[in-house]
Amino acid sequence: MSWIIAAKLMDQAPPRGPGDHQGIARLAQFFSRNGLAADNPQQGITEMLRFAYRFR
């Protein structure tokens, strides 16, 4: 499951894009606090957003 889908399922607003550093940090911290961060969530969220926004 993607980080953004997990965020939506947990009623968390997704970051506005790969440049939304505060939104990415907030979401990564949320995942870490809730035990959903086995790897680096901030890096995973950022890479996923960069990939998605590459096609805009």
Task: Give the C-alpha Rg.
Answer: 10 Å
Number of strands: 0
Model regions low in confidence, pLDDT < 50 over at least 5 residues: none
- Estimated share of beta-strand residues: under 5%
Supply the helix-strand structural class: mainly alpha
What is the H/E string?
Answer: HHH
Helical content class = 55-70%
- Straight-line N-to-C gap: 22 Å
Total DSSP helices: 3
Please, what is the average pLDDT?
83
Q: Please state the overall shape, judged from the principal axes of the Cα atoms.
A: globular
Quick overview of this protein structure:
With 56 residues, this protein is an all-alpha fold. It has helices spanning 3-9, 21-33, 41-53.
Task: Please characterize this protein's 3D structure.
The radius of gyration is 10 Å and the shape is globular. The protein is 59% helix and 0% strand. It is built from 3 helices and no strands. With 56 residues, it is mainly alpha-helical.
